[in-house]
C-alpha cells in the first residue's frame, strides 16, 4: 500500500517513493516524492537505522541475519508512521 521502491545492486541500493517509472538520471530522480522519502529516512534515523540522506543503503558481511531482520522491522514501522 505504499509507493516505496527499491533499486540497486544487492548490497548497495536506494529507496525512493514514486508511482512513475524508475529514475534513470538526476532529472528523473527529482520527479520522485522527496518529501516522503525524507520523512521515511528521518523515521529510520530516529529508530537507529542510518541510510544516507539520499536514501542509499549499504549491507556488508558485518551485518548479521538478526541485524537485517531488525532493520526490516524498523523500516516497516517507519512506513506505518508515514500513514499518519
List keywords for this structure.
84 residues; alpha+beta; three-stranded antiparallel β-sheet; 18% strand
Walk me through this protein's architecture.
It is a single chain. The protein has a three-stranded antiparallel sheet. The chain is globular, with a radius of gyration of 13 Å. The longest helix is centred in the last third of the chain and has 18 residues, at 65-82. The two termini are 14 Å apart. Helix content is 42%, strand content 18%. By secondary structure, it is α+β, with helices and mostly antiparallel strands.
Quickly count the helices: 3
Radius of gyration: 13 Å
Number of strands: 3
Distance between the termini: 14 Å
Largest sheet: 3 strands, antiparallel
Q: How does the overall form come out from the CA principal axes? A: globular
Overall residue-averaged pLDDT value = 95
Give the low-pLDDT segments. none
Which percent range fits the helix content? 40-55%
User: Approximately what portion of the residues adopt beta-strand conformation?
Assistant: 15-25%
Give the SSE string: EEHHEH
Quickly give the structural class.
Answer: alpha+beta
Amino acid at each position: 500500500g505504499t509507493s516505496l521502491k527499491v533499486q540497486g545492486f544487492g548490497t548497495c541500493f536506494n529507496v525512493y517513493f514514486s508511482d512513475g517509472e524508475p529514475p534513470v538520471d538526476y532529472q528523473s530522480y527529482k520527479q520522485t516524492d522527496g518529501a516522503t522519502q525524507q520523512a521515511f529516512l528521518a523515521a529510520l534515523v530516529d529508530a537507529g537505522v542510518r541510510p544516507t540522506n539520499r536514501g542509499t543503503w549499504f549491507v556488508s558481511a558485518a551485518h548479521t541475519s538478526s541485524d537485517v531482520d531488525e532493520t526490516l522491522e524498523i523500516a516497516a514501522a517507519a512506513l506505518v508512521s508515514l500513514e499518519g
